[in-house]
Sequence to fold (727 residues):
Amino acid sequence: MVFYRTIAEQAAARWQAREGVREGNKQKMQTEGVVGVESAQRIQLRLDRLSAAATKEKAFKTSSNPTASFGQQSPTSFLIENVGFERVIGKSDFMGMDFLELALAVSRFVCRIQIRSSPGRTIGYGTGFMVSPRLLMTNNHVISSAKDAVHSEVEFDYQYDRYGRLLPVVTYGLEPQTFFMTDRHLDFTLVAVRERSFNGIELKRFGWSRLIADQGKAIHGDTLNIIQHPKGETKQIVLRSNRLVDLLDDFAHYETDTEPGSSGSPVYNDQWEVIALHHSGVPKKIGDDYVAKDGSIWRDGMDPNNLDWVANEGIRISSIVNFVKKQRIPSAMEPLRDDLLHGEPPHPFEAAAMASMVQQTPVSSQQTGAPQTQGTSYTFTIPLHITIQVGAPQQGAQPLTGSSNQIPDAGTSLVTTRGSDGATATILDDTKSRLQDSTALREALSELEAARSELYYDQTKDRADRETYYADIPNRELSGRELYERLHDLLESTHTTRLTYSQARHQHLYPRVDLHPDKMLHSIYTGEVYEPETFIRNDFEITERLLAQAREQFSRMAPFSEAAFAEHIAFLEAEAPYNAEHVVPQSWFAKRDPMKSDLHHLFACEMACNSFRGNIPYYEFEDFQEIIRQGCGKRESNKFEPSQGHGAVARATFYFLLRYPGEINNNAKEYTDDRIEMLLDWHEREPVSKYELHRNAEIFRVQGNRNPLIDHPEWARNIAFSLGLGS
Fold:
């Protein structure tokens, strides 16, 4: 692997070269403490930075509450001024609760990067964070050139709230033409981010971390904190469970928990100053050999995920800042560099408060129950809580342009053309646009009631339908290619009804298609049983919230066309955390229809498991004992095996390969020939169930086409499924 042969190998070499120094420092830390490792000058620099941080924090709290006593110190300032020297430099593990609140506020600066080679084609994920009002920092190996940045996007608030629900994701494009700087040795990239998201949210609402060139931000033994998007997952944080173990001229070594996709994460000290840019794990070596997790020698061609890792490496921020200062850049880029080098960011609490309030308002003592003070105080929720106004736009809001001359309302159906193929997608269909008067919800619940009162599966009728459907498939044995092509033509030509995503979920999937013989919904990955009405109401609540959010945002912006509003709704809908699992992940086909709304590969699934699987292809582990998330299955690197549903998901995947050739790529991130063989094994080990027969019959009634792997499981080994894989 290129990554392994360059960055990780260099990190391992640096780690190995410092082994003697590191072990000596470890012994000194145990016997003499930090004074045996660090110079008096560096210790003083660290104390000076701690004192400055405590003073700054005290000043902020005093300005936020003018009547606060100067005798009431923050936990940090108390440590500095009243506790012994040893405790200041890291011996105490006691932290004030405001440390956690500050962690949540700072986490808003961190985002997930979707690395894209072309519009809608994601090839990987990384982490980045804002380091000025407009500039994002990540690794060079995440975004190595301005060309790489053109189609890539950054996503803020891709995280769960306190109730386990995904927040609305806010996505921004990049502007490498405005600012771009990178260096391969220091493995960093700075790139400008657009000032407004695709749905019109100002970038400045998310705040940023200042990059400080001064020494003294961390010394040996200091605890570190990393905020990251491991493996492209939702935002996660590692607090104080890792320590700085070595400092080189340009690099820092520390022990912590990071995963692929964490590249580009900020490494913070306990005062939430950035001390390093995370860029690589350090693989374990014995002599010239790399070591596998089982202690054996790791050889070329073996799975890189079996490598044993001993530490992590980041690039020192002081080195990056000094590099940035020295570069000759176009005059148009100078103001943005000045902001990076000299700008003072708002306090993280201020940034969070500004983002969460529709307007600044005094909070009275009657509201808070706190002693009455003068001035203005701020109330906000972390993670970010967005208040949505439902109803008419505010006076003075700009109208949409176009024939309607107003924001689309409950009676509007919008159609917009998307994509180079000229395909049209209904963004707001009549069903969804009637959500506000609950008509569609009543229809969905009525459909559920009808399904529960009817025969679950009519075997006689379905058998007759099946025979008619495949009447033109010859009885004689066809070659693998011939059978594939004949079935593809049949599935495509009979797919007469193209649903919207809303229709697929609300009208069909939850009320009828995905019901099991007990007339309940069973999660495809866990087997947990759910009341269908719960899923239905939950989905409607999410969709209503998205519509309200869109109207509120567009009421404050102008001018926008109906097509722009429709595009915004499509974006929100694509990112929404619905309880519907796509067996073939949406990102593989750029969330386009009809793939996104094809019922044959949609299944009921908990949001948590849906997110846990993400866009990872299926895999079969030899040892399936270590479950990473209880119930959902096992996941390591680019591999996911569900706890249940192996046969059903295999047959749904085969349907997709037949129906949509070329939409699944032939690579390790999606599917390869060996994984097709694995799916065939799953198909044969778990025979077609009554539940799947019911699903197939219901989808046939709705869409017009069927899944041949359910109707004729014996055909599986004769079909050349690899023809469905793209390049």
The longest helix spans residues 40-64. The chain has a mean pLDDT of 77. Residues 424-726 form one domain.
